Amino acid sequence: MAFGIFKKFNFGLKKTRESMSGAIDAAISENEDITDQLYDDLEEILIMGDVGMNTSAEICERLREYVSKHHLKKSSQVKGAIKEIVAEMLEGGEDMGLVTMPSIILVIGVNGVGKTTTIGKMAAMYKAQGKKVILGAADTFRAAAIDQLEEWANRAGVDIVKHHEGADPAAVVFDTIQAGIARDADIIICDTAGRLHNKKNLMDEL
Ligand SMILES: Nc1nc2c(ncn2[C@@H]2O[C@H](COP(=O)(O)OP(=O)(O)O)[C@@H](O)[C@H]2O)c(=O)[nH]1
Ligand SMILES: [Mg+2]
Description:
The protein has eight helices and four strands. The protein is α/β, with parallel strands linked by helices.
């Protein structure tokens, strides 16, 4: 069962991976030498692959430095370089700066980007650090969303506050914060129903 889900997800990502990887291969074979055109093509491919404007520009900037530092000449050497650069950029990461007691994290994003899964992992990570974590199931859109978060709470061994399907998400967040304060939680993490960050009315609702 779990394997089936994994396969399905892997298949889902395969399209993005293949289209981006395929496009990079095509750009490389079109430009044998490393030219400005190649950098432009690569930046466009990254942006089209949802990497984001700033990150795409940074990857290309770092690629230029890498190419000059390693005296690369042929475009075929570029793919390995991009892999190294991206891996380096993903290392480390900033501290969340959780200084208040309790700290409240509201997780927002488009459907299916991994909000609930990330909350589960964060809960386990903070718990392992000896912190008291409480989760709020403010994605009340589907009953399954509440069950999913509950499963993650059970796995991490942390408390969860939930209402029924269709309940007011703000009320769930409110209750979670109340419970967090009452139970001396260090970190409160609230799940939300997927929404586009540029839909103003939906964001204001939060
Ligand atoms: N490979 C991979 N899959 C993930 C990751 N995070 C979430 N998923 C999968 O993506 C799908 C959607 O995740 P979910 O947490 O429900 O997204 P949500 O709608 O934002 O809450 C699920 O099938 C997860 O198992 C990740 O970091 N890596
Ligand atoms: Mg979710």
